[in-house]
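Run Putative extracellular protein through structure prediction, thanks.
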Amino acid sequence: MSINEGNQAYLDGLSSNGNTLTVTGWHATNQAAGRPYHYIIAWDRNLGHEIARQRVTAVSRPDVAKAYSTVANAVNSGFSVKFNLTPQFFNDNIQFISRWTDDAAGNGNAVDYWFKPMNRTNRANLDSVTLSNGQVKVAGWHATDLSQLEPNHYLIVFDNTTGQQVASEKVGLQSSQDVKNVFGDVQTANHSRFNYAFNSLHLISGHNYSLVSRYSADANGNGNDGAHTDSWLNMGTFQQSAYSIDHVALNRRHMTVQGWVANDNAMTRPYAYAILLQNGHEIGRQRLNLSERADVAKVYPQIYRSQYSGFNTSFDLPTASTNGLQLVLRFTDDPAGNGNSSDKWINL
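Sure, done. The structure for Putative extracellular protein is below.
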């Protein structure tokens, strides 16, 4: 039987509660013979020296022993140690070393295994922003291995126009194998997706917004008081509108108009009206009770309440003439249909 002279190890993972970091894995080598003391060392690549070390209490790893049956210490090669999270862990490039040594203090004649440095890459994407049902729903992903040190995930909506935060929620993450397939160098990429609806968030049309995806060591508030890693994602400026007149029917002097209208200005102008003019003079107005239009929401998911944009209204004309008719589709802050309004003028 040949003797395995290799030096094998694997870092299973890092996990944190924001205050301590747990490092787990295994280190199996026949070179550990005569070196009974096992240590995990945190090495600061920025400073060029170690910042902490922990002595290992052996963890049984029958899976490693099965894979490396000719390595004497494989069955007891596992480790699980905790480090207090000092600022260097968050700010510097940290690399972990597994060491078997003949020195009880962790120095002496040793055999080391240097694991890959922690990947500090910070990647994210905002896949969609949906306002069609009146709620602000965001979907995307944020992948960084710094989340292993900063386990609390927040989504923050920031109004760039006013320079103020308008919402902050602690949001769980979902499986994201598609992200892992593309960014395999990020260990946590397979659990980086978010999909969240802000139920009570009120935006202002014409303002520009950002979504901040944040990992933080702080479990309170918006995570700003602890070490944190942000990705700022552009939500855009909400000033879109669209409409369609699907059908106009005239029965003598009674006119029926069907269609839909959606407008981001409805965020602050909630009253919808259809106003009929003839030769520039108003001849009728109807307050609209907008109905569900799933087809419109599918095409215009980013327009506020596009899912509830349908209307069917009617007017009585003063004469049989239809010359010079115009329809105004209005959203306003006035229940009577006047006030501060956003109008769409349509020639009939």
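The helical segments are 62-67, 87-91, 177-182, 294-299.
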